[in-house]
Amino acid sequence: MYSKAEVTQLRQAFWTTLGQYLAPIPNAEGETTNWINYKTGLKHVYFRMQADQRHARIAIELTHPDAGIRELFFEQFQELRGLLHEVLGEEWTWEPTATDEHGQALARIGTELYPANIFDRNAWPALISFFKPRLLALDAFWTDAQWSFEGLK
Length: 153
What we know:
By secondary structure, the protein is α+β, with helices and mostly antiparallel strands. 41% of the residues lie in helices and 20% in strands. It has a domain at 36-110 and 125-153. It is built from 4 helices and 4 strands, in the order αββααββα. A hairpin with a 4-residue loop joins strand 1 (45-51) and strand 2.
């Protein structure tokens, strides 16, 4: 097993490596972006990437504290489901009710990679190959879809 310091160092090293790998790639509008901390421009709407020693996940997470508003956002994403899956080139899992690692309620649209191990540097190319095309596709989707959420701001 790894010490707490080793776990922290390996996590930081992976996300830094992924960020450096993605840094030269412009977003769908041709601008530079911080891919690791992607800004959707909507409060409580996040594109999140997570990885541990068992799996990796990339997802759209809707975290509004009001369940009704969170449901409205989820329904708006459902209206765009065809476009999202077309841009991604794959079907994702839709969870109208889920919880994060801290027990907070959220809605999630995402996909996972099993097995994956962020603590094995030899597995990093597979993780990067999992995250990169999906994050770029999410960006392309969001460039068109974000305008559908103007009335919900």
